[in-house]
Design a protein that fits this description.
By secondary structure, the protein is mainly alpha-helical. The chain is built from nine helices and three strands, in the order αααααβββαααα. The chain binds manganese (II) ion. The site of manganese (II) ion (MN) has 7 residues, from helix 1.
Length: 225
């Protein structure tokens, strides 16, 4: 890793594909602005800051840092876990949504949801329920198991933990940290989870589902790490 310092990569806040106001009325523009610019922005800044003194790690993607947490120097492990996790999860979260009139899962993903949950409605109910009952800050996910013939499951993770640490491929995620919904929904997290379906980009979820057919190595590489 004897590259000149100028070649070292910095993690960057990805731009949104839509305006801050585009997800109204489901998510208000002020929440989007603070959530993307301030919250996500601070995870990116802190990740870059903690990697300053570790040039060998600065060319690793945030996802590969999460996959290899146990190999990182002990003194930065927790900080990387939090901030690389915050960066990876939020980057996926912005892609998981789009403005519009709402849509539904289609094709192979819909078939798999029907197979593993009974129906799309039952899946949505379980996703809302798990997201509502997670205590403290975290994420609710639709994931696909690497084993068990690729069964779909709903799981939650605390803080910014990512399903890669549980050997699961992420298909869809929602942020249930208070900063994601408090301004509009106050403490009504269940109402936020229910309203959120209107802005889900099911084409993006289908893309993630297709990726989950690949081997673990190919999958994580395609996801950026
Ligand atoms: Mn968040």
């Amino acid at each position: 890793m004897n590259q000149p310092v100028t070649k070292l990569k910095k993690h960057r806040l990805p731009p949104l594909k839509y305006d801050y106001a585009a997800l109204e009325p489901c998510i208000d523009s002020r929440t989007m602005m603070l959530h993307h610019g301030i919250h996500h922005g601070s995870y990116v800044a802190k990740l870059n800051e903690v990697l300053e003194k570790f040039p060998d790690l600065r060319n690793c993607s945030a996802l590969s840092l999460l996959r290899n947490l146990d190999k990182l120097p002990q003194e930065i492990r927790l900080t990387v876990r939090h901030n690389a996790g915050g960066h990876v999860n939020h980057s996926m979260f912005w892609r998981a949504m789009r403005p519009g009139l709402g849509s539904e899962p289609k094709g192979l993903l819909r078939e798999a949801i029907n197979r593993d949950f009974g129906s799309v409605e039952k899946f949505m109910a379980q996703f809302e329920e798990e997201g509502t009952k997670l205590s403290g800050s975290g994420w609710v996910w639709l994931v696909r198991a690497l084993q068990e013939k690729g069964k779909l499951e709903v799981i939650t993770t605390s803080n910014h933990d990512h399903p890669v640490r549980l050997n699961r491929f992420p298909i869809l995620l929602n942020d249930v940290w208070k900063h994601a919904y408090f301004m509009k929904y106050e403490s009504r997290r269940a109402a936020y989870l229910k309203a959120w379906w209107a802005v889900v980009d099911w084409d993006e979820a289908a893309r993630c589902f297709d990726l989950s057919d690949k081997s673990a190595e190919e999958h994580w590489e395609a996801e950026g790490g």
